[in-house]
TrEMBL record:
NERD domain segment(s): 6-115
Pfam families membership: NERD
Organism: Jeotgalibacillus alimentarius
Protein name in UniProt: NERD domain-containing protein
Family matches, as InterPro entries: NERD
Length: 173
């Protein structure tokens, strides 16, 4: 079931200080999608659309951008969460207007304390993919939006956010 989070007391809310529309626990199906999409959180803001997937991995996370399988805690295999989130974003681009395609951002949030041994700076604010602890996500979204709003003067209008939210709610099973 999709829920629009407007109550800041909700445990799933990101408590952002900026205007946003957040949908959680989405199961999207559409005729142009090969498979149903399962998305933990989709956050619509004036500066971008954030696709957030939460990961339960623990310990040391070993991998590279290119490797399809990463290791958690030395021997637990997991699909590369960056690649998995990118697949979701590419599928979403098949069902929304091209105007929004450049405003997608990928966030993988780790619910447990992890040490990430993946080459690259996955906390670089200039990027578009982040590996973050769950508690860091709201701060990163706010920093990115502030930066985007200064550079591009709110590329996504409030009425566009409403249209996107309604469209995704409609597609949810």
């Amino acid at each position: 079931m999709v829920q629009a989070l407007t109550n800041l007391d909700n445990e799933n809310a990101l408590n952002l200080k900026i205007d946003n529309r957040t949908l959680t626990q989405l199961n999207l199906s559409h005729r142009s999608l090969e498979n149903e999409l399962m998305i933990d959180s989709l956050v619509f803001t004036s500066g971008g659309i954030f696709v957030i997937q939460y990961n339960e991995a623990r310990g040391m996370i070993d991998g590279t951008q290119e490797r399809p399988i990463w290791l958690s805690d030395g021997d637990v295999r997991m699909k590369n969460p960056l690649q998995e989130n990118e697949k979701i974003i590419q599928a979403l681009k098949n069902i929304i207007p091209p105007y929004f395609h450049d405003y997608f951002y990928s966030i993988v949030g780790f619910k447990k304390r992890v040490k990430i041994n993946v080459p690259g700076n996955h906390k670089n604010i200039e990027g578009n993919q982040w590996l973050l602890s769950e508690s860091e996500i709201p701060e990163y979204i706010e920093r990115i939006i502030l930066k985007k709003n200064v550079q591009q003067q709110k590329p996504i209008k409030p009425h566009h956010l409403n249209i996107l939210e309604r469209g995704f709610s409609w597609m949810n099973k």
